[in-house]
Amino acid sequence: MDASSRIAAGDLRRHHLGLVLGEVVHGSAISRAGIAAATGLTRSTVSGLIAELLAGGLVRDIGAGPGGTSGRPGRRLVPDPAGPVGIALQIEEDGVGGCLVDLAGRAGARRWHPAAITGTPPQRAARALAPVLRELLLAAAGGDRPAAGIVLAVPGVVSGSAATTAVTSPALGWDAAAIGTLVAAEAEQLGAGGIALAVRCGAALAAEAEPDTGPPGTTTVHIGGRSEIGVTLVRDRRSQGRAATRFGHLVARPGGTACPCGRRGCLAVETRPGVQPDPRRSGRLLGRVLAGFTAPTDPDRVVLGGRFAAAGPAFVAAVTAELHRHGIPADRVVPSVLGTDAALRGAGRAALAPVIADPWAWITGDPAP
Ligand SMILES: [Zn+2]
């Protein structure tokens, strides 16, 4: 074997390691045979890869499950409960918060610090986040859980790459705020400068966290967010990684309530419980604007998340009736099962995504080739 084919074989094994960990993370106590069937790898290859993931602290063998078709029970594998965690952070108009998310997608150590963020400079928001991050780093360290990454969910449009992230959010009064750099500086102060940090749109993270996105080929329109609302199109379990948060600033009621973006009657403002106390009227407004998005996409499902997840049955019925008038069958409209927790869950999962994609890099500290 020459040098280049040895490297290629190493890359393939590295790729397969991620494939196998992905099956354990997304499966439900899957067996080695189950992974072999799902990935097309041989049983012996899977067993070898699982041995590496067990030794690397990413997978745990929880013993035999019920008997399979051969009658011999397979040993079941789950993400290691003592494995790495993703640190999820969140900024909203009325506070900052965060939690830890493990490889199985479970959220813990939730924190929420109420603070009036709207109208404050991003420096203040970053400083408000620092104690939350400190508490989460302590919680991770206390449980001896290594932190794989930090993802900050923000309400608004995120542009630019890692070092130059800019966030524009009428709800917060921010125009191209460099919140990523500011939070990275706070993390550095806390001794967490070595942990990768990313800033993502909260509504898109919420859509990605939704557990049931239907069978392959399913198209879902997800509407989520709290301070800002955004629409995300999820096809085949994949979003484009961003939400259309300008959606919230489409005019739902001409001449209506003044919005921080400068217009009047924006959907984001008109559907606020404080502005519109009648959930049926709020639901009709959302349904009417949303119909402009669902009519051309003809989604299999419309998920009402974020601030709309807990808006109640009268609200859901009004959205459903309005969409039905525009050709979307009533049984396609469902409230999110994650509710307002979705953006943080999505952020934590996004923080762990590099570990799942390339477990070899995590185990050995050897960066991607
Ligand atoms: Zn607006």
Structure at a glance:
By secondary structure, the chain is of the alpha/beta class. Helix content is 39%, strand content 24%. The site of zinc ion has 7 residues, from loops.
Summarize the structure in words.
With 369 residues, this protein is of the alpha/beta class. The protein folds into three domains: 3-79, Arc Repressor Mutant, subunit A, CATH 1.10.10; 85-204 and 342-364, Nucleotidyltransferase, domain 5, CATH 3.30.420; 213-337, Nucleotidyltransferase, domain 5 (2-Layer Sandwich). The chain is 39% helix and 24% strand. It has eleven helices and 16 strands. It has helices spanning 3-26, 32-39, 43-55, 122-142, 179-189, 202-209, 267-270, 279-297, 313-325, 342-357, 359-364, and strands at residues 30-31, 59-67, 73-79, 85-92, 95-102, 107-114, 147-154, 157-159, 166-169, 174-177, 197-201, 219-224, 230-235, 238-239, 301-304, 333-335. The strands form four sheets. A five-stranded mixed sheet has the order 6-5-4-7-11. A five-stranded mixed sheet has the order 14-13-12-15-16. The chain has a three-stranded antiparallel sheet with strand order 1-3-2. The longest helix has 24 residues, at 3-26. It is globular, with a radius of gyration of 22 Å. Zinc ion (ZN) binds next to loops. Residues 170, 249, 259, 261, 263, 266, 268 line the site of zinc ion.
